[in-house]
Amino acid sequence: MDDDMDDDMDDTYEEALGDGELDHGALEAELREAAAILDPVPAELRLLAVEAYALHDLDAKIAELTFDSLVDAIPVRGAVDVPRMLTFHTGGLTVDVEVTPRGIMGQLLPPQSASIEVLDGPRAGASLTADDMGRFTSEARPTGPFALRLRAGGEVVVTEWMRA
Amino acid sequence: MRSEAGPATAYDDLPYTRGGTVDRSEVGALVQSAVDGDTAAWKAIVEGLSPLVWSVVRAHRLSDADGHEVYQTVWFRFAQHLGRIREPEKAGSWLASTARNECLKVIKSLRRLTPTDDPQLLDRVSEERTPEQSVLDSEEAAAQSERVRHLWQEFEALGERCRQLLRVLISSPPPSYQEVSAALGIAVGSIGPMRQRCLRRLRARLDARGAL
């Protein structure tokens, strides 16, 4: 910012002393201690990360995010509170999800029935059903990270964890 | 002089004796053990890498609520992808870049929607007392506490780029430059020089204050 020129002068000064890096290393170490004291990982978050191990499931297929309206769509000018549109894809299955203030609406392609669990963390989530047309809805809007675990056509598919 | 030996490898050669329990060279083995069902290995990964994930969240100045959600999303997704990550030894970089992407999405969505909270205003050290803070608050430690707070204040007052870079660099155990690069989208080769510059500025601020 305003002290750019001072920086250059410092360089010469420090090289002459030969202890610039020593001093920087010590300062960084001190700052690291300060961070551990004043801005540590909150205990409840650390615990959640430990519990997240339960989400590790090698048998389920992961449906990866292929479209996110937040990133891939240009918003209409002046439109606020537009629904978040997400598309997940794996093998032959596509999962379209729309997150609105009123909840979740979704569509499986190709259309097929499925039992669906809405996960919001390492513990069991709410259950839904997709009808024969592959449509499903949930009244509850996910408030934090969520994923859908689907059982369809003898397969278990989990969508990538997303922040709603 | 680590910085002149080559910034890309500067940290990677250091032993990690402080704070966390993960030696970065063991991360690949720990990930494999966790895939095989070893809960202790998973805990060691969380212990060693959650400060890095948290530092990325904090570097992006998210509100507490958004930051907590990003942190959770990152770890849930990591657990989900465990066993499918192509380079398990680079799990730290995977976590850091996932955290960065999620932080950028939050920032994008805040810009798009009517902001309900201002991350700038909400960015502050938690009011809650951690055990370490309580110790610091004891009378014997008052001087030390003062010192730490001054240091942190000057750090917070650095320019945005320096504050971001240093916040990630000072996670514990120290991240590799590859991880810092993934966390902030900065080329590995420019981290060393930027670090020097930012620490120099911090030192100058502290000297001006006469605090340390």
Automatic annotation (TrEMBL), chain A:
<feature type="compositionally biased region" description="Acidic residues">
    <location>
        <begin position="1"/>
        <end position="20"/>
    </location>
</feature>
<feature type="region of interest" description="Disordered">
    <location>
        <begin position="1"/>
        <end position="22"/>
    </location>
</feature>
<protein>
    <recommendedName>
        <fullName>Carboxypeptidase regulatory-like domain-containing protein</fullName>
    </recommendedName>
</protein>
Automatic annotation (TrEMBL), chain B:
<protein>
    <submittedName>
        <fullName>Sigma-70 family RNA polymerase sigma factor</fullName>
    </submittedName>
</protein>
<keyword id="KW-0731">Sigma factor</keyword>
<dbReference type="InterPro" id="IPR013325">
    <property type="entry name" value="RNA_pol_sigma_r2"/>
</dbReference>
<keyword id="KW-0804">Transcription</keyword>
<feature type="region of interest" description="Disordered">
    <location>
        <begin position="118"/>
        <end position="139"/>
    </location>
</feature>
<keyword id="KW-0805">Transcription regulation</keyword>
<dbReference type="InterPro" id="IPR039425">
    <property type="entry name" value="RNA_pol_sigma-70-like"/>
</dbReference>
<feature type="domain" description="RNA polymerase sigma-70 region 2">
    <location>
        <begin position="46"/>
        <end position="112"/>
    </location>
</feature>
<comment type="similarity">
    <text>Belongs to the sigma-70 factor family. ECF subfamily.</text>
</comment>
<dbReference type="InterPro" id="IPR007627">
    <property type="entry name" value="RNA_pol_sigma70_r2"/>
</dbReference>
<dbReference type="InterPro" id="IPR014284">
    <property type="entry name" value="RNA_pol_sigma-70_dom"/>
</dbReference>
<dbReference type="InterPro" id="IPR013324">
    <property type="entry name" value="RNA_pol_sigma_r3/r4-like"/>
</dbReference>
<keyword id="KW-0238">DNA-binding</keyword>
<dbReference type="Pfam" id="PF04542">
    <property type="entry name" value="Sigma70_r2"/>
</dbReference>
<dbReference type="InterPro" id="IPR036388">
    <property type="entry name" value="WH-like_DNA-bd_sf"/>
</dbReference>
